[in-house]
Amino acid sequence: MRRKDREMDRGFGLMVIDKSTYGILSVIDDNGEPYAIPLSIVRDENKLYFHSAKEGKKVEIFKENPKVSIAFVGEVKVPEIYTKEELDELVKDESKGVLLIRKVFTTEYESAIVKGKIELVEDEEERIKAMKLICQKYTPNKMDYFNLAIKSGLKRTNVYKIEIEEIKAKRKRYDKAGEEMKWGRMV
Q: Which of 50, 59, 60, 72 is the S-S candidate for 39 at Cβ 3.0 to 4.6 Å?
């Protein structure tokens, strides 16, 4: 990671995964080309789970090359450090131009990148557990209907898991005084 001053710890990375709406799973296909797939992913301890159809390009790729990388993006926003009046005053002094780059024309963000190996989950109990976790994350208000849905759909669904081998997390955030909060500083 180039910007070590923005690196966050494993716990922060896991938090980003948990609150992310989706992850982008990247692999190399059988032609040596990159292939990225947005997926609804849920974490359970040190494992990530997602589901897919029983066939298709990604299913074939997973059989040939189980190494994957998944990118997760948490909160992203443009910081509002200066008022319009302060900005109008700032642009009167060309030496302050770098502040515009660092603190105005930028984004605050949080991200996590995971590396691991993908594995098709064969055990029915683990498959149901994974699907339940996915549904609890994405459709928590519909869990009264889960049992019938899983009974009808599990046989038509692949469930995959990825054991987290490595996680790197990064964040750029400003405090109320407009100063960037470096490594580990949360408030």
A: 50
DSSP for 3-53, written as a single string: -GGGEE-HHHHHHHHHH-S-EEEEEE-TTS-EEEEEE--EEETTEEEEEE-
Q: What is the pTM assigned to this prediction? A: 0.88
Task: Give 148's DSSP letter.
Answer: H
Helix, strand, or coil here: 98? helix
Cα distances (Å, whole numbers) of residue 51 to 34, 127, 178: 21, 9, 42
Strands 47-52 and 67-73: unpaired
Q: Is the backbone of residue 48 left (phi > 0), alpha (psi -120 to 50) or beta?
A: beta
Number of other residues whose CB lies within 10 A of the CB of residue 170: 21
**Extents of the domains making up the chain:** 4-78+107-172
Any idea which fold 4-78+107-172 has? Pnp Oxidase; Chain A (2.30.110)
- Of 103, 96, 99, the closest CA to residue 78 belongs to 103
Tracing tokens 């054991």 back to the chain, one arrives at: 163
What is the spatial distance between Cα 10 and Cα 141, in angstroms, rounded to a whole number?
30
* Other CB atoms within 10 A of residue 21 CB: 12
Is the per-residue pLDDT at 87 higher than 70?
yes
Spatial distance between the Cα atoms of 115 and 167, rounded to a whole number of angstroms: 7
Amino acid at 74: G
